[in-house]
Protein backbone atom coordinates (compact mmCIF):
# COMPACT_ATOMS: atom_id res chain seq x y z
CA UNK A 1 0.00 0.00 0.00
CA UNK A 2 2.80 2.41 0.87
CA UNK A 3 4.58 1.63 -2.41
CA UNK A 4 1.43 2.15 -4.50
CA UNK A 5 0.73 5.42 -2.67
CA UNK A 6 4.31 6.57 -3.33
CA UNK A 7 4.10 5.68 -7.03
CA UNK A 8 0.77 7.50 -7.41
CA UNK A 9 2.01 10.62 -5.61
CA UNK A 10 5.20 10.75 -7.68
CA UNK A 11 3.30 10.07 -10.91
CA UNK A 12 0.44 12.52 -10.33
CA UNK A 13 2.57 15.47 -9.30
CA UNK A 14 0.89 17.68 -11.92
CA UNK A 15 -2.47 17.26 -10.14
CA UNK A 16 -0.99 17.87 -6.68
CA UNK A 17 -1.76 20.93 -4.51
CA UNK A 18 -0.31 24.37 -5.18
CA UNK A 19 2.50 23.78 -2.69
CA UNK A 20 3.62 20.72 -4.68
CA UNK A 21 3.63 22.70 -7.92
CA UNK A 22 5.62 25.56 -6.42
CA UNK A 23 8.10 23.33 -4.54
CA UNK A 24 7.92 19.83 -6.06
CA UNK A 25 11.18 18.68 -4.49
CA UNK A 26 10.01 19.46 -0.94
CA UNK A 27 6.64 17.82 -1.58
CA UNK A 28 8.24 14.66 -2.99
CA UNK A 29 10.69 14.60 -0.08
CA UNK A 30 7.78 14.54 2.37
CA UNK A 31 6.10 11.78 0.35
CA UNK A 32 9.31 9.71 0.33
CA UNK A 33 9.75 10.16 4.08
CA UNK A 34 6.16 9.07 4.75
CA UNK A 35 6.63 6.03 2.50
CA UNK A 36 9.89 5.11 4.26
CA UNK A 37 8.24 5.37 7.68
CA UNK A 38 5.27 3.22 6.62
CA UNK A 39 7.51 0.60 4.98
CA UNK A 40 9.84 0.52 8.01
CA UNK A 41 6.90 -0.08 10.36
CA UNK A 42 5.61 -2.81 8.03
CA UNK A 43 9.02 -4.52 7.93
CA UNK A 44 9.39 -4.35 11.70
CA UNK A 45 5.94 -5.87 12.18
CA UNK A 46 6.62 -8.65 9.64
CA UNK A 47 9.90 -9.45 11.40
CA UNK A 48 7.90 -10.26 14.57
CA UNK A 49 5.53 -13.12 13.67
CA UNK A 50 4.51 -13.60 17.30
CA UNK A 51 3.41 -10.74 19.55
CA UNK A 52 4.30 -8.15 16.92
CA UNK A 53 4.44 -4.60 18.20
CA UNK A 54 5.02 -1.42 16.25
CA UNK A 55 7.57 1.17 17.39
CA UNK A 56 6.27 3.70 19.92
CA UNK A 57 3.82 6.29 18.54
CA UNK A 58 3.76 4.49 15.14
CA UNK A 59 0.31 2.91 15.40
CA UNK A 60 -0.97 5.64 13.07
CA UNK A 61 1.11 4.10 10.24
CA UNK A 62 -0.45 0.62 10.49
CA UNK A 63 -3.16 -0.03 7.86
CA UNK A 64 -6.40 -1.72 8.83
CA UNK A 65 -9.81 -2.41 7.31
CA UNK A 66 -11.67 -0.34 9.91
CA UNK A 67 -9.98 2.83 8.65
CA UNK A 68 -11.44 2.54 5.14
CA UNK A 69 -15.06 3.52 6.00
CA UNK A 70 -16.40 6.77 7.36
CA UNK A 71 -17.33 6.85 11.01
CA UNK A 72 -21.07 6.52 11.68
CA UNK A 73 -23.32 8.77 13.70
CA UNK A 74 -26.66 8.41 15.45
CA UNK A 75 -28.56 9.08 12.21
CA UNK A 76 -26.11 7.46 9.74
CA UNK A 77 -24.86 3.91 10.16
CA UNK A 78 -21.21 3.14 9.49
CA UNK A 79 -20.60 1.79 5.99
CA UNK A 80 -19.68 -1.86 5.68
CA UNK A 81 -16.15 -2.32 4.29
CA UNK A 82 -14.64 -5.51 2.96
CA UNK A 83 -11.98 -7.04 5.18
CA UNK A 84 -9.68 -7.47 2.16
CA UNK A 85 -9.30 -3.73 1.78
CA UNK A 86 -6.98 -1.94 4.16
CA UNK A 87 -6.43 1.78 4.61
CA UNK A 88 -4.17 4.02 6.63
CA UNK A 89 -5.81 6.05 9.40
CA UNK A 90 -5.85 9.82 9.39
CA UNK A 91 -3.23 11.19 11.73
CA UNK A 92 -2.02 14.54 12.92
CA UNK A 93 1.37 16.08 12.25
CA UNK A 94 2.39 15.74 15.90
CA UNK A 95 1.76 11.97 15.90
CA UNK A 96 3.72 11.59 12.65
CA UNK A 97 6.72 13.51 14.05
CA UNK A 98 6.71 11.41 17.23
CA UNK A 99 6.77 8.25 15.11
CA UNK A 100 9.74 9.57 13.10
CA UNK A 101 11.58 10.30 16.33
CA UNK A 102 10.87 6.75 17.50
CA UNK A 103 12.29 5.34 14.25
CA UNK A 104 15.46 7.35 14.89
CA UNK A 105 15.84 6.10 18.46
CA UNK A 106 17.32 2.63 17.84
CA UNK A 107 19.79 1.35 15.19
CA UNK A 108 17.39 -1.37 14.02
CA UNK A 109 14.55 1.09 13.43
CA UNK A 110 16.87 3.58 11.77
CA UNK A 111 18.38 0.93 9.44
CA UNK A 112 14.92 -0.09 8.20
CA UNK A 113 13.88 3.54 7.77
CA UNK A 114 17.06 4.59 5.93
CA UNK A 115 16.94 1.59 3.56
CA UNK A 116 13.30 2.31 2.76
CA UNK A 117 14.18 5.99 2.23
CA UNK A 118 16.87 5.07 -0.29
CA UNK A 119 14.48 2.72 -2.09
CA UNK A 120 11.89 5.51 -2.20
CA UNK A 121 14.26 7.74 -4.17
CA UNK A 122 14.73 5.06 -6.83
CA UNK A 123 11.04 4.14 -7.02
CA UNK A 124 9.86 7.75 -7.23
CA UNK A 125 12.37 8.63 -9.90
CA UNK A 126 11.45 5.49 -11.84
CA UNK A 127 7.76 6.45 -11.73
CA UNK A 128 8.57 10.04 -12.70
CA UNK A 129 10.86 9.01 -15.54
CA UNK A 130 8.09 8.26 -18.02
CA UNK A 131 6.21 11.45 -17.08
CA UNK A 132 9.35 13.55 -17.39
CA UNK A 133 9.97 11.99 -20.79
CA UNK A 134 6.40 12.79 -21.87
CA UNK A 135 6.75 16.36 -20.60
CA UNK A 136 10.00 16.63 -22.46
CA UNK A 137 8.39 15.40 -25.67
CA UNK A 138 5.43 17.76 -25.11
CA UNK A 139 7.80 20.70 -24.73
CA UNK A 140 9.57 19.81 -27.95
CA UNK A 141 6.21 19.30 -29.66
CA UNK A 142 5.03 22.74 -28.54
CA UNK A 143 8.33 24.23 -29.63
CA UNK A 144 7.96 22.58 -33.04
CA UNK A 145 4.41 23.92 -33.38
CA UNK A 146 5.51 27.40 -32.37
CA UNK A 147 8.39 27.30 -34.82
CA UNK A 148 5.99 26.09 -37.53
CA UNK A 149 3.66 29.00 -36.78
CA UNK A 150 6.58 31.42 -36.80
CA UNK A 151 7.77 30.08 -40.14
CA UNK A 152 4.23 30.39 -41.56
CA UNK A 153 3.91 33.97 -40.28
CA UNK A 154 7.33 34.84 -41.64
CA UNK A 155 6.40 33.41 -45.04
CA UNK A 156 3.13 35.34 -45.00
CA UNK A 157 4.94 38.51 -43.96
CA UNK A 158 7.50 37.97 -46.70
CA UNK A 159 4.77 37.52 -49.30
CA UNK A 160 2.97 40.67 -48.11
CA UNK A 161 6.24 42.57 -48.12
CA UNK A 162 6.95 41.41 -51.67
CA UNK A 163 3.45 42.48 -52.77
CA UNK A 164 4.02 45.84 -51.07
CA UNK A 165 7.31 46.22 -52.92
CA UNK A 166 5.54 45.41 -56.19
CA UNK A 167 2.90 48.05 -55.44
CA UNK A 168 5.61 50.57 -54.66
CA UNK A 169 7.36 49.72 -57.91
CA UNK A 170 4.07 50.06 -59.82
CA UNK A 171 3.34 53.43 -58.17
CA UNK A 172 6.83 54.60 -59.01
CA UNK A 173 6.37 53.57 -62.64
CA UNK A 174 3.00 55.34 -62.77
CA UNK A 175 4.50 58.51 -61.30
CA UNK A 176 7.37 58.32 -63.79
CA UNK A 177 4.94 57.81 -66.68
CA UNK A 178 2.78 60.71 -65.47
CA UNK A 179 5.83 62.95 -65.16
CA UNK A 180 6.97 61.98 -68.63
CA UNK A 181 3.48 62.62 -70.01
CA UNK A 182 3.39 66.03 -68.34
CA UNK A 183 6.79 66.84 -69.80
CA UNK A 184 5.54 65.84 -73.24
CA UNK A 185 2.41 67.96 -72.82
CA UNK A 186 4.51 70.87 -71.62
CA UNK A 187 6.78 70.50 -74.65
CA UNK A 188 3.71 70.42 -76.89
CA UNK A 189 2.29 73.56 -75.24
CA UNK A 190 5.62 75.32 -75.56
CA UNK A 191 5.93 74.30 -79.21
CA UNK A 192 2.38 75.50 -79.85
CA UNK A 193 3.09 78.78 -78.09
CA UNK A 194 6.27 79.27 -80.09
CA UNK A 195 4.49 78.51 -83.36
CA UNK A 196 1.65 80.87 -82.42
CA UNK A 197 4.08 83.65 -81.53
CA UNK A 198 6.00 83.05 -84.75
CA UNK A 199 2.77 83.17 -86.75
CA UNK A 200 1.73 86.38 -85.04
CA UNK A 201 5.20 87.80 -85.59
CA UNK A 202 5.16 86.90 -89.27
CA UNK A 203 1.64 88.28 -89.61
CA UNK A 204 2.68 91.45 -87.82
CA UNK A 205 5.76 91.85 -90.03
CA UNK A 206 3.70 91.20 -93.16
CA UNK A 207 1.04 93.68 -92.07
CA UNK A 208 3.60 96.28 -91.11
CA UNK A 209 5.46 95.88 -94.38
CA UNK A 210 2.27 96.22 -96.41
CA UNK A 211 1.04 99.09 -94.26
CA UNK A 212 4.35 100.91 -94.39
CA UNK A 213 4.53 100.42 -98.15
CA UNK A 214 0.96 101.68 -98.54
CA UNK A 215 1.73 104.56 -96.16
CA UNK A 216 4.78 105.52 -98.17
CA UNK A 217 2.76 105.30 -101.35
CA UNK A 218 0.05 107.43 -99.80
CA UNK A 219 2.60 109.98 -98.65
CA UNK A 220 3.98 110.08 -102.13
CA UNK A 221 0.60 110.76 -103.65
CA UNK A 222 -0.59 112.84 -100.66
CA UNK A 223 -3.84 111.00 -100.37
CA UNK A 224 -5.51 111.53 -97.00
CA UNK A 225 -8.11 108.90 -97.53
CA UNK A 226 -5.53 106.22 -97.98
CA UNK A 227 -3.82 107.32 -94.78
CA UNK A 228 -7.08 107.12 -92.88
CA UNK A 229 -7.63 103.64 -94.18
CA UNK A 230 -4.16 102.64 -93.17
CA UNK A 231 -4.66 104.06 -89.68
CA UNK A 232 -7.98 102.21 -89.34
CA UNK A 233 -6.39 99.01 -90.55
CA UNK A 234 -3.54 99.44 -88.01
CA UNK A 235 -6.06 100.06 -85.22
CA UNK A 236 -8.01 96.96 -86.22
CA UNK A 237 -4.81 94.95 -86.40
CA UNK A 238 -3.73 96.17 -82.98
CA UNK A 239 -7.13 95.28 -81.57
CA UNK A 240 -6.95 91.82 -83.11
CA UNK A 241 -3.41 91.44 -81.86
CA UNK A 242 -4.47 92.41 -78.33
CA UNK A 243 -7.38 89.97 -78.43
CA UNK A 244 -5.21 87.13 -79.71
CA UNK A 245 -2.52 87.91 -77.13
CA UNK A 246 -5.07 87.86 -74.31
CA UNK A 247 -6.52 84.59 -75.57
CA UNK A 248 -3.06 83.09 -75.85
CA UNK A 249 -2.12 84.26 -72.35
CA UNK A 250 -5.36 82.86 -70.97
CA UNK A 251 -4.76 79.54 -72.74
CA UNK A 252 -1.22 79.31 -71.39
CA UNK A 253 -2.35 80.20 -67.88
CA UNK A 254 -5.07 77.52 -68.05
CA UNK A 255 -2.61 74.91 -69.27
CA UNK A 256 -0.10 75.81 -66.56
CA UNK A 257 -2.82 75.72 -63.91
CA UNK A 258 -3.96 72.26 -65.06
CA UNK A 259 -0.38 71.03 -65.14
CA UNK A 260 0.20 72.40 -61.62
CA UNK A 261 -2.98 70.78 -60.28
CA UNK A 262 -2.19 67.43 -61.85
CA UNK A 263 1.33 67.56 -60.49
CA UNK A 264 0.04 68.32 -56.98
CA UNK A 265 -2.51 65.52 -57.25
CA UNK A 266 0.15 63.04 -58.35
CA UNK A 267 2.45 64.15 -55.55
CA UNK A 268 -0.38 63.80 -53.03
CA UNK A 269 -1.25 60.31 -54.25
CA UNK A 270 2.39 59.28 -54.23
CA UNK A 271 2.86 60.66 -50.71
CA UNK A 272 -0.23 58.85 -49.43
CA UNK A 273 0.93 55.61 -51.06
CA UNK A 274 4.35 55.98 -49.46
CA UNK A 275 2.85 56.69 -46.04
CA UNK A 276 0.49 53.71 -46.36
CA UNK A 277 3.36 51.48 -47.46
CA UNK A 278 5.51 52.56 -44.55
CA UNK A 279 2.61 52.07 -42.11
CA UNK A 280 1.89 48.56 -43.40
CA UNK A 281 5.58 47.70 -43.44
CA UNK A 282 6.09 48.94 -39.87
CA UNK A 283 3.06 46.91 -38.75
CA UNK A 284 4.47 43.80 -40.42
CA UNK A 285 7.87 44.39 -38.89
CA UNK A 286 6.35 44.91 -35.43
CA UNK A 287 4.35 41.68 -35.81
CA UNK A 288 7.44 39.82 -36.97
CA UNK A 289 9.49 41.24 -34.08
CA UNK A 290 6.80 40.28 -31.57
CA UNK A 291 6.63 36.78 -33.04
CA UNK A 292 10.40 36.43 -32.85
CA UNK A 293 10.42 37.63 -29.23
CA UNK A 294 7.69 35.14 -28.36
CA UNK A 295 9.62 32.39 -30.10
CA UNK A 296 12.79 33.31 -28.24
CA UNK A 297 10.93 33.28 -24.92
CA UNK A 298 9.39 29.88 -25.66
CA UNK A 299 12.77 28.54 -26.80
CA UNK A 300 14.46 29.87 -23.64
CA UNK A 301 11.81 28.29 -21.43
CA UNK A 302 12.09 25.03 -23.34
CA UNK A 303 15.87 25.03 -23.06
CA UNK A 304 15.67 25.81 -19.34
CA UNK A 305 13.23 22.93 -18.87
CA UNK A 306 15.51 20.65 -20.88
CA UNK A 307 18.50 21.74 -18.77
CA UNK A 308 16.58 21.16 -15.55
CA UNK A 309 15.48 17.72 -16.77
CA UNK A 310 19.06 16.87 -17.74
CA UNK A 311 20.33 18.03 -14.34
CA UNK A 312 17.66 15.98 -12.56
CA UNK A 313 18.55 12.94 -14.66
CA UNK A 314 22.25 13.41 -13.84
CA UNK A 315 21.38 13.79 -10.16
CA UNK A 316 19.20 10.69 -10.32
CA UNK A 317 21.99 8.77 -12.02
CA UNK A 318 24.52 9.82 -9.38
CA UNK A 319 22.05 8.99 -6.58
CA UNK A 320 21.35 5.63 -8.20
CA UNK A 321 25.06 4.90 -8.37
CA UNK A 322 25.50 5.84 -4.70
CA UNK A 323 22.52 3.71 -3.73
CA UNK A 324 23.85 0.80 -5.78
CA UNK A 325 27.23 1.19 -4.10
CA UNK A 326 25.53 1.28 -0.71
CA UNK A 327 23.51 -1.84 -1.49
CA UNK A 328 26.64 -3.57 -2.80
CA UNK A 329 28.48 -2.65 0.38
CA UNK A 330 25.59 -3.83 2.55
CA UNK A 331 25.32 -7.09 0.60
CA UNK A 332 29.08 -7.61 0.92
CA UNK A 333 29.09 -7.08 4.70
CA UNK A 334 28.01 -10.69 5.56
CA UNK A 335 30.63 -12.17 3.22
CA UNK A 336 33.25 -9.82 4.64
CA UNK A 337 32.28 -10.75 8.18
CA UNK A 338 32.46 -14.47 7.35
CA UNK A 339 35.86 -13.97 5.70
CA UNK A 340 37.16 -12.06 8.74
CA UNK A 341 35.89 -14.77 11.08
CA UNK A 342 37.46 -17.50 8.97
CA UNK A 343 40.76 -15.65 8.78
CA UNK A 344 40.68 -15.03 12.51
CA UNK A 345 39.95 -18.69 13.27
CA UNK A 346 42.66 -19.79 10.82
CA UNK A 347 45.14 -17.38 12.41
CA UNK A 348 44.31 -18.62 15.92
CA UNK A 349 44.62 -22.24 14.78
CA UNK A 350 47.92 -21.58 13.02
CA UNK A 351 49.30 -19.78 16.08
CA UNK A 352 48.17 -22.65 18.30
CA UNK A 353 49.82 -25.25 16.05
CA UNK A 354 53.06 -23.26 15.93
CA UNK A 355 52.99 -22.87 19.72
CA UNK A 356 52.68 -26.67 20.10
CA UNK A 357 55.49 -27.19 17.58
CA UNK A 358 57.67 -24.70 19.46
CA UNK A 359 57.04 -26.65 22.67
CA UNK A 360 57.93 -29.92 20.97
CA UNK A 361 60.79 -28.84 18.71
CA UNK A 362 61.85 -25.27 18.01
CA UNK A 363 63.78 -26.17 14.90
CA UNK A 364 60.81 -28.04 13.43
CA UNK A 365 58.54 -25.06 14.16
CA UNK A 366 61.03 -22.73 12.46
CA UNK A 367 61.23 -24.91 9.37
CA UNK A 368 57.44 -25.26 9.25
CA UNK A 369 56.93 -21.47 9.51
CA UNK A 370 59.48 -20.90 6.77
CA UNK A 371 57.85 -23.51 4.53
CA UNK A 372 54.36 -22.04 5.09
CA UNK A 373 55.62 -18.51 4.42
CA UNK A 374 57.36 -19.63 1.24
CA UNK A 375 54.25 -21.50 0.08
CA UNK A 376 52.08 -18.43 0.78
CA UNK A 377 54.53 -16.20 -1.11
CA UNK A 378 54.61 -18.57 -4.06
CA UNK A 379 50.80 -18.82 -4.07
CA UNK A 380 50.39 -15.04 -3.88
CA UNK A 381 52.87 -14.43 -6.69
CA UNK A 382 51.19 -17.03 -8.92
CA UNK A 383 54.13 -19.41 -9.14
CA UNK A 384 51.91 -22.43 -8.48
CA UNK A 385 49.61 -21.44 -11.34
CA UNK A 386 52.62 -20.93 -13.58
CA UNK A 387 53.98 -24.35 -12.61
CA UNK A 388 50.57 -25.90 -13.32
CA UNK A 389 50.61 -24.29 -16.77
CA UNK A 390 54.06 -25.67 -17.62
CA UNK A 391 52.71 -28.81 -19.44
CA UNK A 392 50.53 -26.70 -21.73
CA UNK A 393 53.45 -24.31 -22.22
CA UNK A 394 55.70 -27.23 -23.19
CA UNK A 395 53.16 -28.38 -25.79
CA UNK A 396 53.04 -24.85 -27.19
CA UNK A 397 56.81 -24.39 -26.99
CA UNK A 398 57.21 -25.12 -30.68
CA UNK A 399 54.73 -22.43 -31.71
CA UNK A 400 55.99 -19.83 -29.19
CA UNK A 401 59.45 -18.52 -28.49
CA UNK A 402 60.85 -18.35 -24.91
CA UNK A 403 60.82 -14.55 -25.14
CA UNK A 404 57.05 -14.60 -25.81
CA UNK A 405 56.56 -16.89 -22.79
CA UNK A 406 58.49 -14.43 -20.59
CA UNK A 407 56.46 -11.52 -21.94
CA UNK A 408 53.17 -13.25 -21.08
CA UNK A 409 54.29 -13.73 -17.45
CA UNK A 410 52.97 -11.26 -14.89
CA UNK A 411 55.18 -8.92 -12.88
CA UNK A 412 54.63 -11.05 -9.74
CA UNK A 413 55.78 -14.16 -11.60
CA UNK A 414 58.85 -12.40 -12.96
CA UNK A 415 59.83 -10.96 -9.55
CA UNK A 416 59.32 -14.25 -7.72
CA UNK A 417 61.23 -16.18 -10.37
CA UNK A 418 64.13 -13.74 -10.13
CA UNK A 419 64.21 -14.07 -6.32
CA UNK A 420 64.14 -17.87 -6.57
CA UNK A 421 66.96 -17.87 -9.12
CA UNK A 422 69.06 -15.60 -6.91
CA UNK A 423 68.32 -17.77 -3.88
CA UNK A 424 69.18 -20.98 -5.73
CA UNK A 425 72.34 -19.39 -7.08
CA UNK A 426 73.29 -17.98 -3.66
CA UNK A 427 73.02 -21.33 -1.86
CA UNK A 428 75.93 -23.12 -3.66
CA UNK A 429 77.98 -19.93 -3.49
CA UNK A 430 77.45 -19.75 0.29
CA UNK A 431 78.31 -23.42 0.70
CA UNK A 432 81.44 -22.92 -1.40
CA UNK A 433 82.42 -19.88 0.67
CA UNK A 434 81.94 -21.87 3.89
CA UNK A 435 84.06 -24.72 2.53
CA UNK A 436 86.82 -22.38 1.37
CA UNK A 437 86.72 -20.49 4.68
CA UNK A 438 87.03 -23.77 6.58
CA UNK A 439 90.01 -24.82 4.47
CA UNK A 440 91.75 -21.47 4.92
CA UNK A 441 91.12 -21.49 8.67
CA UNK A 442 92.37 -25.04 9.09
CA UNK A 443 95.47 -24.34 7.03
CA UNK A 444 96.26 -21.18 8.96
CA UNK A 445 95.69 -22.92 12.28
CA UNK A 446 98.02 -25.76 11.37
CA UNK A 447 100.71 -23.49 10.05
CA UNK A 448 100.65 -20.85 12.77
CA UNK A 449 99.57 -22.79 15.86
CA UNK A 450 103.11 -24.01 16.61
CA UNK A 451 104.50 -20.55 16.31
CA UNK A 452 102.46 -18.43 18.71
CA UNK A 453 98.72 -19.34 18.62
CA UNK A 454 97.06 -22.10 20.60
CA UNK A 455 93.42 -23.19 20.88
CA UNK A 456 91.82 -23.33 24.28
CA UNK A 457 88.41 -24.40 25.58
CA UNK A 458 86.74 -23.42 28.85
CA UNK A 459 83.30 -22.56 30.16
CA UNK A 460 83.21 -19.46 28.00
CA UNK A 461 83.76 -21.44 24.79
CA UNK A 462 86.61 -22.07 22.33
CA UNK A 463 89.14 -19.48 21.22
CA UNK A 464 92.72 -18.74 20.19
CA UNK A 465 95.38 -17.00 22.32
CA UNK A 466 99.10 -16.75 22.26
CA UNK A 467 100.67 -19.90 23.55
CA UNK A 468 102.11 -18.16 26.59
CA UNK A 469 98.64 -17.06 27.80
CA UNK A 470 96.76 -20.36 27.40
CA UNK A 471 95.70 -21.86 30.81
CA UNK A 472 97.13 -25.19 31.82
CA UNK A 473 95.13 -28.14 30.58
CA UNK A 474 95.86 -30.33 33.57
CA UNK A 475 94.55 -27.77 35.97
CA UNK A 476 91.32 -27.48 33.98
CA UNK A 477 90.96 -31.26 33.99
CA UNK A 478 91.57 -31.44 37.79
CA UNK A 479 88.94 -28.78 38.34
CA UNK A 480 86.46 -30.75 36.22
CA UNK A 481 87.11 -33.95 38.21
CA UNK A 482 86.79 -32.08 41.52
CA UNK A 483 83.47 -30.55 40.54
CA UNK A 484 82.26 -33.94 39.33
CA UNK A 485 83.11 -35.55 42.72
CA UNK A 486 81.37 -32.75 44.57
CA UNK A 487 78.20 -33.28 42.57
CA UNK A 488 78.20 -37.05 43.27
CA UNK A 489 78.95 -36.63 46.97
From TrEMBL:
GO biological process terms on file: karyogamy involved in conjugation with cellular fusion; nuclear membrane fusion involved in karyogamy
Annotated transmembrane regions: 339-357, 364-384, 404-426
Alphabetic keyword roster: Coiled coil, Endoplasmic reticulum, Glycoprotein, Karyogamy, Membrane, Nucleus, Signal, Transmembrane, Transmembrane helix
Record keyword Nucleotide-binding present: no
One Pfam family hit: Tht1
InterPro entries reported in the protein's UniProt record: Nuclear_fusion_Kar5
GO CC term (a single one): nuclear membrane
Location relative to the cell: Endoplasmic reticulum membrane; Nucleus membrane
Recorded coiled-coil stretches: 151-192
Top-level lineage group: Eukaryota
Family: Belongs to the KAR5 family.
Record function comment: Required for nuclear membrane fusion during karyogamy.
Name this polypeptide is given: Uncharacterized protein
Organism: Exserohilum turcicum (strain 28A) (Northern leaf blight fungus)
Organism ancestry: Eukaryota, Fungi, Dikarya, Ascomycota, Pezizomycotina
Amino acid sequence: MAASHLMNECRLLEHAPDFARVRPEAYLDNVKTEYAAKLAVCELLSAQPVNSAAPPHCDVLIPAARHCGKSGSWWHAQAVVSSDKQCYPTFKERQYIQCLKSLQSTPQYWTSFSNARQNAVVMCQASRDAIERENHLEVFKNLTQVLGGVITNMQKTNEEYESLIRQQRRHSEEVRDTHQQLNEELQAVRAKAVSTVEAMDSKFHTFMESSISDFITALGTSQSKEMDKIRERMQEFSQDLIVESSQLAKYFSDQLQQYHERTLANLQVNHEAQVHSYTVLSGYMATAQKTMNTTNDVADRSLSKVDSIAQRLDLFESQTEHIAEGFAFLSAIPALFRLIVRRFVATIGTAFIFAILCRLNTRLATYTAGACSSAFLLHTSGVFDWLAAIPSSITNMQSQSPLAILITMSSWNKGTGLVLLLWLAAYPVCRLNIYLGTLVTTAARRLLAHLWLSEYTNDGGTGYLPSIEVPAITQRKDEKHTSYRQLHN
